[in-house]
Structures are given as structure tokens and as C-alpha cells.
Write a structure and sequence with these properties.
Layout: H1 2-10, E1 20-21, E2 31-40, E3 43-51, E4 66-71, E5 78-79, E6 102-106, E7 109-115, E8 120-126, E9 134-135, E10 142-143, E11 158-161, E12 167-171, E13 177-181, E14 193-194, E15 197-198, E16 211-218, E17 221-227, E18 234-239, E19 246-253, E20 264-268, E21 271-278, E22 290-295, E23 309-310
Parallel strand pairs: 1-23, 15-19
Antiparallel strand pairs: 2-3, 3-4, 4-5, 6-7, 7-8, 8-9, 8-10, 11-12, 12-13, 13-14, 16-17, 17-18, 18-19, 20-21, 21-22
Bound molecules: beta-L-arabinofuranose (FUB).
Family: Belongs to the glycosyl hydrolase 43 family.
InterPro entries: Glyco_hydro_43, Glyco_hydro_beta-prop_sf, Glycosyl_Hydrlase_43_Enz
Keywords: Carbohydrate metabolism, Glycosidase, Hydrolase, Polysaccharide degradation, Signal, Xylan degradation
Length: 312
Amino acid sequence: TRLAALLFALSLPAFAQSPQAAQPISQRFAADPSPHYFKTKDGGMFYLYATDDASNSGKYWDSTTWRLYTSRDMKTWQDAGIPLAVTVFKWARPDAKAWAPEAAYRNGKYYFYAPVGGDRIGVAVSDRPDGGFVDARKDALVDRARDVNAGDEPIDPAVFIDKDGQAYMYFGTRVPKVVKLKRDMISLDGPIRIVGIEGLPASDSKKKYGEAPFMHEHNGVYYFTFSSGWPGQILYATGKSPMGPFTYGGVVLDYLNISTNHQAIVEHGGKSWLFYHDNLLPGGSGWRRAIAIAPLEYGPDGAIRQVNVVPA
Ligand code: FUB
């Protein structure tokens, strides 16, 4: 109702957007958005890779396939089906689940990164963004049992290619990790390090790193965003380098009516959008999530303006 929207608006911090209704991009359950603008032979398009909550049991995140959506205008999204399944990774255990995916483009190839089970990250490669992916290595890119400093739960990979061509991969639950990637995009380049985040408010013990690391650059500033936990706020911190350290900046998205949150930011044509997931569809739950999009805005000082969606 109008009164509810007004009361919600009055409860917002001053430096925040006015509330907007959350719109799922699809009627199919999906989560952990990884949006990209890729130029292909058919022209440029947005590609959104996701965890496929519609094919899980409804009792856990136990899907074994990822899902792809495409859009030319950010408004209408087409379901482009299954770009790949965990079966692409022959080394995966039979019970391995398909969790939060990521994609990147370099030198005419599309790279797909994802947790394959909770202890390994796989990388696949294709000549096109919507399918044809094959295992790029024949073993895991990160493996908790093999890689010193991989942490307890190496999941949620996010890849960032800086202007100088250096690629970085962020990942991890509870402790954020970063590692450089070689130009081949399928090998680690140097040690796995902890991402340093300074200035998290001591007055709120829930403001800490949980999962869903993501890196983007805007006007020369490196923004590290992440979910604070379960449930989580989406928080951000800024730094002068993709390796950090980062200084806490504030809340991007407040707690939603869901046990997890997982964000990504895409910029194209001078506009920025925040992708996240929430419990937005009939029959939804913590296992059955829906992806939504909101415009992302910055203040004159580069601070991210808190996104405010009317809760589901
Ligand atoms: O989709 C399974 C897990 O839920 C992801 O890996 C986390 O980021 C959380 O969204």
C-alpha cells in the first residue's frame, strides 16, 4: 500500500534510493546472478549465468545444472537453457552440486567458473557464451585438498580483469580469498591471499564477510562487495588495487526475507545495475530463489547509494 511504502521510505538512511518494487527477471527459480555484457557475432547482449533453483529438490541447493538467461535491453530476459552441467567436470564427485557460477571473456574464448561441490572450483571453456563448454583443465582450478590457503569452503568464484589485463579471482566462505590468474585464465598465478577489509563497524558484529565476493571498478576505484552472512546484507568496501586492502564503505542492499543473498554488478553504456536474489516467486523459499535487478547509483564522492527494494 502507499502507506506501507511511505513508512518504509521514512525508515531508510538519508543516503539511499527511494524504494522500488523488486521484479524477478523470470518466473523460473534461479539464484546467484553472474551478469555480463558480451559482444558476439550476433551483436552485443547481456548474459546472466545462475544457479538453477528450479531443478533442485526444494530442500537444498542440490541442482547439478546451471542456467543461462539473455537480454538485449535489461528488461526482457529469455531463458537460454542449460549452458553446462557438473558432469562436464569428470573429476567431480557423483554428489557434487552446481553452485554460484561466474563467466569471463578473453581472447575469443568464454570461461565459466563455478563451485563443483563445496571444496573445489572448476573452470570450463567454450568458443561461445551460451553452451559448448568443456573442462579447461581436467582437474580443479582450486581444490581445498591441494591448494594451501584455499580455505574451508572455496566457493562463489568471481573473476575480474583489470585495465592492465591482469585477471583476479575472488572466492570463499567466511574468509574472503583472492588469487591472480595467468593470461590463460585457467591457472593460478601466485599464492592465494586473504582479502583485507578494514573499518568494519565494531558496533555491529553482523557486519563481517560471509560469502559472495565480487569486484568491480568504477572511476578508478575498486569496489569489493560481499554478503555479510546468513541472512546477509550486501556490503561494500573500496580500495586502490584489486588486491586491496579495502576500507568499509557501507550497505548496498539491506537484509531481505531470505537466508542467503548474492550480488553482482554490471556496467554498460554508462549505466550500472545491481543483480541479487530474493524470495520473490510463489512457492519460493531459501532454496527456491528469484533473481532481480535494481539500478545502482553513486554519490559525487563515489559512495554507493544504498539500493532499496520493497521487500517480498
Ligand atoms: O546457491 C548456493 C549458495 O547459496 C551460493 O554458493 C551462495 O552464494 C548462496 O547464495
